[in-house]
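For homework, think about our next protein:
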Amino acid sequence: MTVTLTTLSENTAGRPDFMAEWGQSILVQTDGCTVLFDVGGSNVVLANADRLGIDLTKIDAIVLSHGHHDHTGGLCDVLKRLGRKRVIAHPDIWDIKYAKRPLEDKEAFIGIPFAREELEHLGASFELTPEPVSLSDRVMTTGEVEMTTDFEIIERNLFLKERGKFVQDPLADDLALIVRMDEGLLVVLGCAHRGTINTIRHAQKLTGEKRVYAVVGGTHLAPASEERIERTIQELKDIGVQKIGISHCNGFYASARVARAFGDKFFLNNAGTQITIP
């Protein structure tokens, strides 16, 4: 079995004819299932798909990793092109999400920038559950990720607005995509707000498969402490990951650290990257 990953939205572009944006979207194609994992922050997904000659109307489902605008902001334009599509996510994607950024006096709204009714009118058929969802005999979502490590925490600057007050966002909606390959698991991350290692461990527990062949997507190491970066790298090595492609929310420093640790097993997963695994 082979899996083709095409990154349609990311902070940087790997080729001059591609568009970049703050966001992420990865097209996951397997023998019997095609999933659009996140939709970036705008219509960049469509523009880059057109550049590659990819017909997104052929996808089986859209999976949203969480309810932040940089992973959901392209949904309106995507649905206008695709029509009725199954959209799988955690119920908490509709929480009213805010972030407090450095040098800003107030919290900024970072949630889904559309009303649910508008998206449903355009064809979104939402399937919202905290449980894992199987899309084929090889592809599934993680559902809500258990937090089991002692070094991965949710950022303190992320909030929900509840009854007019700000409370810390547990990011329970943060999920990933799992593909069970002959060589082991492929784990496709959105932002891994609940932790890259937590997410991998959760995938191992769900599937009963201990081998993890590849990890691709956002590991959220940009705001991480030195200890968290180092322990994440060591855990990935201990797990035996054979291929790692990180993007979006990792930051150049953490990306360089991972690249140095993994050598030719590492690739920078930016917009325009197409890779077939294994």
In short: The longest helix spans residues 226-239. The two ends are 8 Å apart (CA to CA). The domain at 3-277 is CATH 3.60.15.10 (Metallo-beta-lactamase; Chain A). The first strand starts at residue 3 and ends at 9.
